[in-house]
Design a protein that fits this description.
heterodimer, A: about 110 residues, mainly beta, seven-stranded mixed sheet, four-stranded antiparallel sheet, 11 strands, about 0% helix, about 55% strand, globular, B: about 110 residues, six-stranded mixed sheet, five-stranded antiparallel sheet
Chain lengths: ~110, ~110
């Protein structure tokens, strides 16, 4: 079965600084990959998804971007963080079938 | 696009009682409906799922029902235990659009001993 790794697990960054969150997948190849954000409260908002290397679909206009340089690597970035970018970021992966498996998340606090 | 509504937002039950969480969806093309359990500070874990060609699915104390006509599905937990306390999310997806999941807003379940 596939395993999703995310790092860093926690991050405190000043406003205006850059961001890079990394996600890697083990145990499968050619997965669909997803970035979700969970802000204060509980809802999971889909930010980006990718069906292959270099293919990124953006779901909401925002201060963030995503890249997929390798088959099992998905990166979430920002050039200049805003306070509103604080939240819990989750990377998910899906191979054959419908099920999306999630990593343990990355806590981002922008100060 | 798809919109998933989940109710209630909080639910408190006594240990041993049953808990029911309900979701509705808007896109009639959605055909896959998973439920996730999320403990504090952790990623969501899949607990059960159902596809649109099935009306009900059960796994020990957990069951899910789907009414395609009404576009709603429900999670049923019987004989609740304190370790069932967590936030539960329903979600919906369709075959295209990368299989992305659209989530409900979550239900915080508290099981009191």
């Amino acid at each position: 079965s596939q395993t999703i790794h995310q790092w860093p697990a926690t991050l405190v960054q000043p406003v205006g600084s850059p961001l890079s969150l990394e996600c890697t997948v083990e145990g499968t190849s050619n997965p669909n990959l997803y970035w979700y954000r969970q802000a204060a409260g509980r809802g999971l908002q889909l930010l980006f998804y990718s069906v292959g290397i270099g293919q990124i679909s953006s779901e909401v206009p925002q201060n963030l971007s995503a890249s997929r340089p390798q088959d099992r690597q998905f990166i979430l970035s920002s050039k200049k963080l805003l306070l509103s970018d604080s939240g819990f970021y989750l990377c998910g992966g899906k191979s054959s079938g419908n099920t999306i498996y999630f990593g343990e998340g990355s806590w981002l606090t922008v100060v | 696009g798809e919109n998933v509504e989940q109710h209630p937002s909080t639910l408190s039950v006594q240990e041993g009682d049953s808990a029911v969480i309900k979701c509705t969806y808007s896109d009639s093309a959605s055909n896959y409906f998973p439920w996730y359990k999320q403990e504090l500070g952790k990623g969501p874990q899949l607990i059960i799922d159902i596809r649109s060609n099935v009306g009900e699915k059960k796994d020990q104390r957990i069951a899910v029902t789907l009414n395609k006509t009404a576009k709603h599905f429900s999670l049923h937990i019987t004989e609740t235990q304190p370790e069932d306390s967590a936030v539960y999310f329903c979600a919906a997806s369709r075959n295209n659009q990368g299989g992305k999941l659209i989530f409900g807003q979550g239900t915080e379940l508290s099981v009191k001993p």
